[in-house]
Each structure stands twice: as structure tokens, then as C-alpha cells.
Design goal:
Layout (H helix, E strand, L loop, with lengths): L2 E4 L3 H10 L7 E5 L2 H8 L4 E4 L6 H6 L2 E4 L9 H13 L5 E7 L10 E2 L10 H20 L3 E6 L1 E3 L6 H6 L4 E3 L7 E3 H13 L6 E3 L8 H12 L6 E3 L7 H6 L5 E2 L2 H7 L8 H15 L1
Parallel strand pairs: 1-2, 1-4, 2-3, 4-5, 5-7, 6-13, 7-11, 8-10, 9-12
Length: about 290
């Protein structure tokens, strides 16, 4: 396998870690920063600057392509720069993955959604993702690109959890009646992507999430319980003084169903609940200290 990853961020790095030692020499990863390119070399990833470097040689040699970069100013950067090249090379590729968001479903007032649910996004970000999914699907339909779409909720994992804010006293339990989110540990995203690569099904769409949608304040409360500290203060959503970006996350409430992921990809979640995930993160922290 020769994998090209557009956007070597948090999730892509977890995927490469999951692939080790196979990743060394087999993964091309893009970044927009020369400094980040130097760091990537130390992880076994061959870095490229994108946009900037000529990606044709890498894509001509690739069997698998993963797009993690989101829309920028409403436009997908990979399609903007490489649509024609991807159309040309589509027959050579075994698998293409696009990381989208469960925000495409919009608000369901805490109800369940699955991959067949109509897309009714309530935010500008969600609408941009729906449009971008459609562009990728059109490319796949017109040129035979072996596209797989993965819709992700809130992502947490090593270095991206609630413990630091709970410890330093900056965490707040924002209370909004009926608000519930799905989430996923980054290692479970990585294993789902590898499972899809192992059994490609072009055209497939998967929700990648855990089994336990929950109100955000419950997650913070459990983190405080694990740490043995006082609960973060509870503040009504209306009084929270949140930024427009932060408030937009609370514009949608839904529970995301992951049945297709488990049934078709055979994924057995390592962290099926946020409690299991937080317990594992804290245990890993303490082993390192």
C-alpha cells in the first residue's frame, strides 16, 4: 500500500501510528508548514507542502488517498487544486477516503441519525461539508473514483481531552436542556479507516462514532470524578457568554448511529463509551508521569 494523506493533522497522525511499522516509507503526508514537514519526517512520513509541491508523482504511485483537510472559505482545497489529476488517475486507485462530519445531519433535537438520514445542516460549516461531499461524489460518479465518506463527531484522545481544563479550573459545564453529542476516540477512527482500506466498498458512507452519545456536561463531570476534584461550575447555555463558533456547536443535538460501521467494517470499538475512553487516557497519563 502507498498512502497519500492530504492534511497531516491529529487524526492522520493517529492513523500513521496505528499503521506502524508499515507506515515507514509508505505514507506521503501534506502540510502547509516547513516546520511541520520536518516533524513529520521523524514519524516515518514523507512530507510534502500542499499547496505548493507537485503531487502528480506521489498520486501516480499511490494506491490509497485520504483527505482530512476540511473546506477553506467554502471550497475543498484538494478538489480546487487537483480535481483534474484525480479524475485522470481514478482508475489506478484502490481506495479514497474523505473525512466529513456528522454536522451534515443538522439538528434532530436529540434524536437518532444514520447514514440514510437526509442532510439538513444548521450551520455554515455543515452546509460547506454537504456541498463538498457532493463534489467528491460527483467526481466518483463521473470518473470511477473509489470514494468512501466517513462522518465524524467530536474527536478526543491523547492530548485532546477534558483533563487539563478540569485540573486548571477553566472547564465549565454548559447546560442546555436536551443537548447531546456523539464523540469518538481518535484510535477508533484509525482502526475504522484501516478496516475500510482492507475491504473497500466504493460509494460507502460510514458514521464513525462510539456507542454512547451523552450531554457534554456529563463528560466533564466524569473527568472530574476520575481526577477526584470538584465538579466544574454549571452555567446555563444562555448565560455562558460563548463565542459564535462555540455557540454554533450547540445549535445541533443528535445521537449518531454506528451500526453500519460495526456491521460492514467489523469494527470492535476499543473505547465504546466516553467513560472507557477517559479512563484509558488518564491511565496512560499516569503511566508516563
Amino acid at each position: 500500500m502507498k498512502l497519500v494523506i492530504f492534511g497531516m493533522g491529529y487524526t492522520a497522525q493517529a492513523l500513521v501510528a496505528e499503521m506502524q511499522p508499515l507506515a515507514t516509507g509508505t505514507v506521503i503526508g501534506t502540510t502547509r508548514s516547513e516546520d511541520k514537514a520536518a516533524v513529520l519526517r521523524d514519524t516515518g512520513v514523507t512530507p510534502r507542502l500542499f499547496p505548493g509541491d507537485d503531487m502528480r508523482p506521489d498520486l501516480e504511485a499511490a494506491s490509497h488517498v485520504l483527505i482530512t483537510a476540511g473546506p477553506q472559505d467554502g471550497a475543498d482545497p484538494v478538489l480546487y487544486h487537483l480535481r483534474g489529476l484525480l479524475a485522470e488517475l481514478a482508475p489506478r486507485l484502490d481506495w479514497v477516503g474523505y473525512l466529513s462530519t456528522t454536522g451534515v445531519y443538522g439538528d434532530h433535537q436529540g434524536g437518532w441519525v444514520d447514514e440514510s438520514t437526509p442532510l439538513t445542516p444548521a450551520t455554515r460549516r455543515g452546509r460547506a461539508r454537504v456541498a463538498t461531499e457532493g463534489e467528491w461524489q460527483a467526481l466518483a460518479r463521473d470518473h470511477g473514483l473509489p470514494l468512501h465518506i466517513f462522518r465524524l463527531p467530536g474527536i478526543y484522545g491523547p492530548g485532546r481531552g477534558p483533563f487539563e481544563k478540569v485540573r486548571d479550573g477553566t472547564a465549565r459545564r454548559i447546560i442546555k436542556d436536551g443537548q447531546v453529542f456523539s464523540r469518538i476516540h481518535v484510535e477508533d477512527i484509525a482502526q475504522a479507516l484501516l478496516a475500510s482500506m482492507a475491504r473497500p466498498d466504493p460509494g460507502a458512507i460510514y458514521n464513525i462514532c462510539d456507542d454512547d452519545p451523552a450531554p457534554p456536561q456529563d463528560v466533564l463531570s466524569y473527568a472530574a470524578e476520575l481526577l477526584g476534584v470538584a465538579l466544574p461550575p454549571a452555567i446555563a447555555f444562555e448565560d455562558a457568554g460563548m463565542s459564535p463558533m462555540a455557540r454554533s456547536f450547540y445549535a445541533e443535538s443528535k445521537r449518531v448511529d454506528n451500526t453500519r460501521m460495526k456491521r460492514e467494517l467489523g469494527v470492535r470499538l476499543r473505547y465504546p463509551t466516553y467513560k472507557a475512553g477517559l479512563e484509558a487516557l488518564l491511565a496512560a497519563e499516569r503511566r508516563k508521569s
